Amino acid sequence: MNFINLIKVAIKAISNNKFRSFLSMLGIIIGVAAVIVMMAIGQGSKESIRENIQQIGSNIIMVRPGSDRGMGGARQDPSEMQTLKVEDYEAIKKEAKYVPFASPEVTSSGQVVNGNNNTSCTMYGEGVEYIDIKQWEITSGACFTEDDIKKSSKVCIIGKTVVDELFPDGQDPVGKMIRFKSIPFRVIGVLKSKGYNSFGMDQDNLMIAPYTTVMKRLTAQTFLSSINCSAITEEMTDDAIEELTGILRNQHKLKDDAEDNFTIRSQQEMMETMSSTMDMVTLILVVAAAFSLLVAGIGIMNIMLVSVTERTKEIGLRMSVGARGIDISNQFLIESIIISVTGGVLGIGFGMLLVTIASVLIGLPTSVPMWSIIVSFIVCTIIGVGFGYFPAQKAARMDPIEAIRYE
Questions:
Q1: How far apart (Å, rounded) are the C-alpha atoms in residues 156 and 210?
Q2: Strand (E) or helix (H) holding 307
Q3: Other C-beta atoms lying within 10 Å of the C-beta of residue 199
Q4: Is the Cβ–Cβ distance between 107 and 125 less than 8 Å?
């Protein structure tokens, strides 16, 4: 029996039991769809995180107080979190060749009020170069100046969320007075909206003021929360980190064998860490979804074994008129492959539909890698061959005389 005829016989056998064949395919459909959806969400989330970090600036470097010892959950002494000083920032500005922009940072959270309107936000005390480092755009007004920093002027720039909450009538906030923790600030600029990031944080719910103002009038502290820097280019980030490490160790008078009392992290490093984490999460989800394919394969084998038993007399008749064992084997193997591959194709379509729903209606970041579709198709073929082989061999090894007598 030639290959075309075997396919025709297999299709006819499947069509004779449409509902049972569909139930056999259902496990494959669900498994493939689950794998595609998990891959799409994982890949989309990774790309979204990468895009958000790149929008902030992939060459950004963050210097924070304290060593890496506290990163694993160990509590650090409070004094170790006060190791960054304004003098460190000034030394970076003076000595660093790979760091064109730097900004000291202190933060304070609280309520900001304008008349009867109020909201909670974070106040960032920064230098004038913070806007360039974080790639903010000012849509109205201007940034504060070095003179404002020297005088600790009570001026600020506000984000779009703060504007919407404090000025709901749509008036221009530039020039208006608002109060943060009862301290009056004059609004001198409004930032362009950046929206929510991949972590669900509102990037527009902030105020930016001179760091000297925040230190003297709000936090009453003499140390910095961090220092934000940017390397000349992303490729020079490692050189910039090495340079910053040398400057700060010299500033803090650390001996050669002494541990750093500061931590330097780059956006590039964060991006790699996030990507690695998302890859691991995606892998776990895909493995979990792949188990359903294994169960579906077992289901196909079970159905094919039932089919072999039901068609024992048919197998005997085919053998008695000259069909070889390999022909019988190929017939059932082809049936198994058709069921598996058809289920895989339907599963890919169903998975793409679910991805579209997740993206359009729910708003999840999704991206379907082409290789996931190709791999799903290959896996379905392997399942068809692997789990159809045993039933096909059972059919091929039947004694034709015993098969004909079977009731």
A1: 8
A2: helix 267-310
A3: 8
A4: yes
Within a 10 A sphere around the Cβ of 394, how many other Cβ atoms?
17
Q: Which residues contact 222 (CB under 8 A, 6 or more apart)?
A: 85, 86, 215
The answer, yes or no, to whether residue 24 has pLDDT greater than 60, is yes
Burial of 123 (0-12, 13-18, 19+ CB in 10 A): buried
Question: For residue 106, which of 90, 123, 121, 125 has the smallest C-alpha distance?
Answer: 125
**Distance between CA 32 and CA 51 in Å, rounded?**
28
Model confidence pTM above 0.85: no
Token digits of residue 18: 């449409």
CA distance to 93, 97, 339, per residue, from 25 (Å): 66, 64, 6
**N- to C-terminal Cα distance for the chain?**
26
Highest-confidence range of 33-42, 106-115, 320-329, by mean pLDDT? 106-115
Length, in residues, of the chain: 407
Average pLDDT estimate for 165-178: 92
In this prediction, residue 55 has a pLDDT band, given cuts at 50, 70 and 90, of low
Angle at 299 (CA atoms; ends 294, 302), nearest 5 degrees? 130
**Residue type, position 386, single letter:** G
Among all chains, which residue has been given the structure tokens 């003179």?
A: 147
Kindly report, residue by residue over 332-343, the tens digit of the pLDDT. Answer: 788 888 888 888
Dump the DSSP string for 364-396: ------HHHHHHHHHHHHHHHHHHHHHHHHHHH
Q: Contact at 8 Å (CB) between 289 and 85?
A: no
What integer pLDDT is reported at residue 26 of this predicted model?
85
**What radius of gyration do the chain's Cα atoms show?**
33
- pLDDT average, residue stretch 154-166: 95
For residue 86, the surrounding DSSP H or E stretch is helix 86-95
